[in-house]
Amino acid sequence: MRIQIGVPGDALASSQLHAHLRRHPDTRRLPLEHQLPAGGTSEMGALDTITAVLDSGVGVGGLAVALAAWRTQRRGTRAERTLRLERDGQVVTLTGYTPEEAERVLRTLAADPAPAPAPEPDGDGPRP
Predict the structure, then answer these.
(1) pTM here?
(2) Where do the segments described as Disordered lie (predicted)?
(3) 49, 5 contact by CB (below 8 A)
(4) Which of 4, 57, 79, 91 could, after both became Cys, cross-link 10 (CB 3.0–4.6 A)?
């Protein structure tokens, strides 16, 4: 599962978050990719993102702890305390979160979507 993480409106903070995740003991072994918007710079609300590839609940919990630790270390602007998380088009913005809140949101994003219900028989098929 791939989760995109970004710091809205702050490319420097996003780069610093990426560095933090690379060093944090709970996430340093996670495959992480840091992508800049097209053109290589963040402009006009474009968001550079960090993609974390998670394959277990342990990875989700570790990422939540690392995100909360990064937030706790930041003592600046509101943007530095706000994270945008996305998976398969589902977007969540976290502001002022605890490790438990971050983990709850990550687990919700990580959950497989409910399977589509089976189609109702239309009456045109063979009957038993």
Answers:
(1) 0.73
(2) 109-128
(3) yes
(4) 79
